[in-house]
Amino acid sequence: MKKETLDYITQIYQSENIIINPTAYFYDMSIVKKNIGELEKSLPLQTKLYYAMKANSNEQLMLEIRKLNYIQGIEIASVGELEQAMKYYCGKDIIFTGPGKTDHELEQAIINDIRFINVESMTEAVRINNIVKNLGSKPVDILLRINLNYSVIDGVENMSGYSTKMGIDEEVYIDHYKAISRLEGINIKGIHAFAASGVLDYQTLLDVDRYIFDFANKLQHEVGNIDIIDFGGGLGIDYTNENRRFDVKQYGKELSGMIRQYNLSEKEIIMELGTYIVGNAGYYTAEIIDIKKIKGKKHIIIAGGVNHMGLPLEMRRKHPVRIIPMHKPKLHPGQIGVCKEIVDISGPLCIVSDKLSWDEYIDLAEIGDIVVYLQSGAYCYGEGMHEFLMHMPPAEIVLT
Asked: Which of 65, 196, 276, 314 could make an S-S bridge to 152, C-beta 3.0–4.6 Å?
């Protein structure tokens, strides 16, 4: 969080001449640029950075990201994302990831000549091969995803080391790799090995990378040279008030040494990052509509809830909270506020589970004040249930 950004948002709300939506997302491009600058300085030279647009697909934000040279391209996960990504990037700058791609999605990816499809299964590979035959197109470059025998302890969401829908099981991966490599419509360029997201300890991620490099060398011994190793994402941000930071500088330094150690300096390393790029650049704001005391506990009710921001409920993840005082007059003599109390903060939906914060200490809050949720740039707006009860959607404002 930048104090200057929060101060600027406060000025916007407290200005008598500006009236905005009772809920809004603000995205600070100066923070995005700083995050990408840190990556550019720190990651090994052969690293190619792709923006994972599932984190935040706001059109103005995407336009601003397109201007940043270090971003190689876009990682997508649906035909809808493909259509939007094509507004900003050409096909050769796009990677298509994710399980359960339909024939239509695969066909559109092939027609638009995207750089890679990250293939998740033998079935998906056969589908691609059949589409190539039907279209009479050239062979498709792919990365073949593996579900590693490695479980990450520190990740917010783990995708390997146990039974998930992601990738091909490590036990059968080499056999599948050999079989898929014989399909005439496919060129396997390397491996995709996304193990976990939301990792804050850089050493944890280095341990994963070391396992991947060990496997890559084993794979090359069995099938011959591979050109590309795609780590997926993994770099996390802190959603508490502890201000922990992923040490990208030290991570990059030690990863570069590891690459030399494994004699992989000629390989292209791909990283697909979303949260680390935009997560801490976002601020969700909502007006306090009511404050109630029910059975001994106070509840702050704001103009937007899980309809605008779904992950606090889904992941039981609380974002840091700030209050912008608006100094509005009381509506009636018995109106209550909050003063140095533990409260729940809920949205306006007709479900009890509509909470963005629970057991949250609030120093001071009144009806009409603005609640600000920090770290709201990734998987927030897009994770909302915007059609549920059809409340006014939040405004989205990009600060450039």
From this structure: 196
